[in-house]
Amino acid sequence: MSAPDLLYSEVEEDLRANVRRLLRDRCDWTAVLARCETDEPYDLALWRTLAGELGLASLLVSEELGGAGASTRELSVVAEEIGRSVAPVPFLSNLLTTATLVACADEPRVRELLPQFIDGSRLGTVAVGLTTVPYSAFPQSVKAEGTALSGSVSAVVDLEVADYVVVPAVDADGAALYLVDASVSGVSRSATTPLDLTRRFGTITLDRAVGERIASGADAERILRQALVTTAGLLAAEQVGLAQKCLDVTVEYAKTRYQFGRQIGSFQAIKHRLADLWAGVSSARAVARNAADTLARGDDETELAVAIAQAYCSDLVVLAAEEHLQLHGGIGMTWEHPAHLYLGRAKSSQLAFGIADHHRQRIGELADLPMP
Amino acid sequence: MTVDADELRGIVRGFLAANDPRGMDRLDFLRARFDAGLAWVHFPAGLGGLGAARELQPLVDAAFAEAGAPDNRPHLNSIGLGMAAPTILRFGNDEQRRRYLRPLWTGEEIWCQLFSEPGAGSDLASLATRAVRDEAGVGSEAEWVVDGQKVWTSLAHRARWAILVARSDPDQPKHQGLTYFICDMTAPGVEVRPLRQITGEAEFNEVFLTGVRIPDSQRLGEIGQGWQVALGTLMNERVAIGGRAPAREGGLIGIAAEAWREHPEKRTHGLHNRLLRLWVDAEATRLTSLRLRQQLAAGDPGPEGSAVKIAFAELNQAITGFELEFLGEPGLAYDDWTFHQPEFTDFAKRGPGFRYLRAKGNSIEGGTTEILRNIIAERVLGLPPESRTDKDRPWKELPR
């Protein structure tokens, strides 16, 4: 284990500045709120700009495969900015899909499709429930006979906009990953009304739908697990970005809101809560950076680093969104205020890829702190 | 032109070739090391340093340790090295720097800090120890006559010198009437009494100052500038306390985790949950502290120090409380109530009861958690200060 680099490089800060500028112009919270009850809850035009023009969908893809050959370090900076603006874009599904497909790039079909995922013209997702714990057993709910897949998976993130779905299934050889064109017959999708207005999910039902096997056996299990671990680690960075936003906005509000003839930020009851939140966000940033750096180095402590980051950040982001609401008082309870957008994203992301307790259980195993 | 890492390695090699640490008297060796500028390399030449970058110090220390050289026992003179030395360097005159820094670094002269008083804890600037100038001192030099009581003074019973803040002008508002001195702890009128703590031992002392005469040449900074000098000193304290970055399980969590591994029969699900939460918090605090170090090394001192200090205090208290509950019956016992004055407090070498009691001080010493939260809120987040009525009134009119 070498010491992690917990700072941001200049290149990473430049990338952040570009993403932040774009999101400030195209994705302020009023636009997010206005969109979330329309027929187009996702801003796919924004996604294509982020993915294609800014190139973020290519970061995890090697140059040999036509990508940027960057790492989770750069991608985590993007994740922070997306969290900061609660951007309604299919980001999580892109992380899952890219991590999976890059590991299956020996398959001709995958190689052929990758450029379209990289430039944002095609979207994909992975058919696992959003609450799946990365360290859990391979899913069993879809069976494959030959190339025909049957079964259903609920809470599949960004399902409604996906062109392709990577489906973990069990076939005659055991675990396998199949690539399914979402438009073929035998695929049906139903959306669930989400708590988080900015991130959608649904149930996919497969009835003898045709797919192409892209991994099998131990490879399939390893690839899916690694994709889930990577995405969970980057989700921690998204949570840091949102938590920082909640803190920043609340601090500004505490300076401008007057009650009892004083700025409410001059009361220690408020100051101490914000100081504690600032400390929490600082620590969340350290553990999330540690996860991103460890993932980038791919060392043998990857799962531990991600488990620590998720155990810490997924609760901290909820605290930040709840403090944001409480310290705004009544205005925070209104629809016309972004507090509910932040809270919905925070609370849902806390459930995504296992709640903190699941990650702590994994830490108990990895750090030799066994159960009773 | 500054010394780089390669040159520094060469200087150390040359020094060790000329001064065999195994064949020399310990103090002679340390003095020679100081004179060669290898004591604290970021200090100026002639004062134990070479004007090199601060980050190069670990390289030098490692090279000396590797050669089997004696060190200056830094844990026995923590106030001197961590607080007095940087203050003397920054605010002292040339004569003061030459007189005090060398024996301070070698450990020949131990230092203590006379700041806190029974009536001035968090509100240090309200302190009441008086310093009255006596123009007719010894010979042509003026003297100051100091009266008052200081408290929480670690090392006072071993110290040769103290850094002291006293009130030189009660008619000024509290921050403006202070002056900073170097006080001779062997001078007549200095009385040191051990202060027994809830742990049974006395790490600290009370110091009574009665008519203590301090030559004006031992004043550090201008008359009335004592608060600015003291702030400089306290900045070093926060860095010293908050800047450590231990290894994983390097702090008290390691002791609790070991106890957990050794006693499967004592485990419960509730305790398991608590231990894992504490373990994650300890790891988060460790990484925050590591990040702080990396920011400092990159020349960008982040304000995380106060937050890390709060987190360490809360963690230590929670972990030591957990440890007693987990142990059960052995948690009822206490290793040693005998009154003594330890040279250095090592949590790991004492029993769990001691750790539990001593950790209670972590959220009080070096800035209470409440004051640190104010500092974060006001200096980091830029929130408005508390409305205060004492700032511009003459000190002598303040309610006490």
From TrEMBL, chain A:
Domain Acyl-CoA dehydrogenase/oxidase N-terminal: 10-120
Entry keywords, A to Z: FAD, Flavoprotein, Oxidoreductase
Cofactor requirement: FAD
Family matches, as Gene3D superfamilies: Acyl-CoA dehydrogenase/oxidase, N-terminal domain, Butyryl-CoA Dehydrogenase, subunit A, domain 2, Butyryl-CoA Dehydrogenase, subunit A, domain 3
Record Pfam families: Acyl-CoA_dh_1 (PF00441), Acyl-CoA_dh_N (PF02771)
Record CDD domains: ACAD
Any GO MF annotation of the entry: acyl-CoA dehydrogenase activity
Domain Acyl-CoA dehydrogenase/oxidase C-terminal: 226-365
Family: Belongs to the acyl-CoA dehydrogenase family.
Protein name as catalogued: Acyl-CoA dehydrogenase
Provenance organism: Saccharopolyspora phatthalungensis
Higher taxonomy: Bacteria, Bacillati, Actinomycetota, Actinomycetes, Pseudonocardiales
From TrEMBL, chain B:
Annotated keywords: FAD, Flavoprotein, Oxidoreductase
Residue stretches making up the Acyl-CoA dehydrogenase/oxidase N-terminal domain: 28-108
One GO cellular component, as annotated: plasma membrane
Chain ranges of the Acyl-CoA oxidase/dehydrogenase middle domain: 112-202
Membrane-spanning parts: none
Organism: Saccharopolyspora phatthalungensis
Pfam family, any one: Acyl-CoA_dh_1
Keyword Flavoprotein: yes
InterPro entries: Acyl-CoA_Oxase/DH_mid-dom, Acyl-CoA_Oxase/DH_mid-dom_sf, AcylCo_DH-like_C, AcylCo_DH/oxidase_C, AcylCoA_DH/ox_N, AcylCoA_DH/ox_N_sf, AcylCoA_DH/oxidase_NM_dom_sf, Mycobact_Acyl-CoA_DH
Domain Acyl-CoA dehydrogenase/oxidase C-terminal stretches: 224-381
GO molecular function: flavin adenine dinucleotide binding; oxidoreductase activity, acting on the CH-CH group of donors
Protein name (Swiss-Prot/TrEMBL): Alkylation response protein AidB-like acyl-CoA dehydrogenase
Cofactor annotation: FAD
Family: Belongs to the acyl-CoA dehydrogenase family.
